[in-house]
Design a protein that fits this description.
The protein has one domain: DNA polymerase, domain 1. Helices cover about 60% and strands about 0% of the residues. It contains 5 helices and no strands.
Amino acid sequence: MEDREYRLRRLRFRAWHRGTKEADLLIGGFADAHSERWNEAEMAWFEAILEEQDVDVMGWAFGTIPVPPAFDGALMQQLRSLDYVARKAR
């Protein structure tokens, strides 16, 4: 069985290496902000999210496309809050 810390490191790496800077910030920032508190089911949910297309995950987070029932719930609400994405001051 996989060690929890190794699994979290692997999830965070995958979250920060999505292919676009925007997806990295959204998904990686979410993992950094919340993953330490995740239980087994929440880690499995996030692993499933990582298998989805960035454009879909971003659409769900921004509310521009409907969230599939399999991903809807408390973690999706946290993802949609966007309060974990650092903003540059102008």
